[in-house]
Input
Amino acid sequence: MVNLQPCDVIFVKRRRDPTFKDRIIGKLVKWATRSEYSHVAYFVAETTTFEANAFRFAGYGSLDEY
Output
């Protein structure tokens, strides 16, 4: 595991268990940005992240989702 510090940016390629909508949106973002990453999250502390996804509210999540 990487030693993350608060406010570190986590570049996300895909979620652990993506929904169908997450897979489609992720592929569109990767295609539009010509990147291998679909979005980013910020590391908060321990296993907590903060992120904003397309068509979702911004909020806290778990590091286990990646």
About this structure: The CA atoms of residues 3 and 18 lie 25 Å apart. DSSP finds one helix and four strands in the chain. The longest helix spans residues 20-33.
